[in-house]
């Protein structure tokens, strides 16, 4: 009898506001716990603040550092191509600005922003989900949304057994939740504030339109308009699906209201459209006319993998597709909320295979309606003729299976912290060299280093880095830099003069041959900094 009372209290708490609040506050904290541990137990090393894909995040830090220094518009410091400060990135402008104004370390602001945006997303998602789910199913919906994932763990087990790495050309054969962080909420929190920021804004955009129409009020539309402007100037790929889905929501309400249109609603859509177009036109102008960023747009090709990889990446959440399709014959009888979620899910999935060079990016957002339909599938399963003693544990088991990959990733991240993975923990020698660069270079200088060091130095440098990125550096320049440092060929003097290089950073442990081949050139340069592992020279 006591055990039944305890179970009843647990069930009651699970279905309560307090239970949902705990989920929203606790899940991001658990996901980010390895990062907190990284800072607390870094020892003599420097913890970068990330545990996956350091390449892209060094680029993000480059933008934040510029904002920290007081710039509103950014340079592309990943290349030495002369160009104007024109690019605006609202998120990194905000994070860097907060860091500069409050004298907070960028790493601290970066980490805290992940948590804050994740919690705000949780509350926004709660408001959206409660329009279609109630009671314990609403709590289940929040869990499925914030932790739901696919068969990535099984893909990792296969990788371990077979020896096939989840990287390079073979990467796209593995479940998407292993290598597409924007695919799920938990991995967006794990990876970068940019993705969870985008998820938050997307929910605010659609939620603002929904409540603006429902209440026939201008204020919710204003929230949507501001949100679409912010996302247009931070993750502009999302504007394509947002345009189609927003228009679908507009049509849904027009049909339901027999095309009735109040002026407050009209001005709401007008404001939304103006700010949408303003961000789109500005981004298009900069990416087409600014030589420092046009290359980025040209090289940023992201095509989607086979749809089976997507389904494997969503795993059991993919049952939401079945639930959605099963409901389509009764589309007219659905409430407007489910109609919208159906259109969102199917339309955005189709757009992912549209003829855009970056259509893989359209996967960001799909997991929101998919998680809802997954929970509706579980709800349908619970109502079958099978005994409740069987159906409810089965629903719980299916839900828990979707948590396996995030559980593995948290454990793997703790493992990276424990071994001080060299990709994310820099030696004291490296940090001293990068710190010297941070304090002594300006945007009038040009830094040359090896491929790995170039990307790492990008995070700290106020000067353009000749080969700072695979995406934003001309391929010929990057290849020549790789030849100079990796193969230690002659030609450094001519290359440095051609690229207007003012400073060179050399890793003595990894590029000893480069130093011996170019000894005369380096001897004629002024050594500004040197320790056991690095030498930093100014070219005469």
UniProtKB/TrEMBL annotation:
This protein's record includes keyword Repeat: no
Supply the source organism's classification. Answer: Bacteria, Pseudomonadati, Planctomycetota, Phycisphaerae, Sedimentisphaerales
The transmembrane segments are 21-42, 101-125, 137-161, 189-211, 242-259, 266-287, 307-326, 338-356, 362-378, 390-408
Q: Which UniProt keywords apply?
A: Membrane, Transmembrane, Transmembrane helix
Q: What is this protein called?
A: Uncharacterized protein
